[in-house]
Design a protein that fits this description.
This is Knr4/Smi1-like domain-containing protein. The protein has helices at about 15-25, 35-45, 55-60, 110-125, 175-185, and strands at about 125-130, 140, 150-155, 160. It is α+β, with helices and mostly antiparallel strands. A four-stranded antiparallel sheet has the order 1-2-3-4. β1 and β2 form a beta hairpin. The longest helix has 13 residues, at about 110-125. The radius of gyration is 16 Å and the shape is globular.
């Protein structure tokens, strides 16, 4: 599997923020944004720094969007999709996201007893949940570890990184590339 391409997670380009605003049709002069004080408080509470351009997006543009992506909309920074469930472990955003390559645990030959303890960290460590496409398919933005700034699709069957270098899509890596791909009306997994 390909190694992750660098994603600029330190600086938000104003043109990229304008592109995100247009793609998600946000035109409320920042009223739906969390604000910088809200972002700083969330980061301090969880011991992380959000990757750009998502960080500036939630601070200045909007904290969630019904227009998508994904299919059921972009949830707010401190929210979870309605179908997430109440019996899940406590999420630890400061813990390192454990994967650097796709893992389809449904096809893993190891006994389930070996796999099961490895699953909770995939869902609950080092990422924020951006939203759901339903049927247990969640989009995560990794906030810690080697894949910081990358988007992952995590479902009951496995976890797959988003970005053309990973072979599943023609879209570019990161939050901006993910939104661009959605705004262009492309299927998520469109690589031949």
């Amino acid at each position: 599997m390909a190694h992750s391409a660098p994603v600029n997670t330190d600086h938000a380009d104003p043109d990229h923020l304008a592109e995100l605003r247009a793609a998600l049709q946000v035109d409320d002069a920042g009223e739906s944004a969390l604000g910088w004080a809200g972002v700083y408080a969330f980061e301090a509470e969880h011991g992380i720094v959000l990757p750009e351009p998502y960080r500036s997006f939630v601070a200045e543009i909007t904290d969630g969007s019904f227009s998508g992506p994904p299919d059921f909309g972009l949830v707010g920074l401190a929210e979870m999709p309605e179908d997430w469930g109440d019996s899940r472990p406590v999420r630890d955003l400061s813990a390192t996201f454990p994967l650097t390559r796709a893992w389809l645990w449904e096809e893993d030959p190891r006994p389930y007893a070996e796999i099961q303890p490895l699953l909770d960290p995939v869902f609950d460590h080092g990422s924020i949940v951006l939203g759901t496409d339903g049927c247990g398919m969640y989009w995560h933005l990794v906030v810690t570890g080697p894949h910081r700034g990358h988007i992952w699709n995590i479902s009951g069957e496995g976890a797959v990184p988003f970005g053309r270098e990973f072979g599943h899509t023609t879209g570019t890596s990161g939050f901006l590339g993910w939104v661009r791909h959605w705004a262009a009306g492309e299927p998520w997994f469109d690589a031949a």
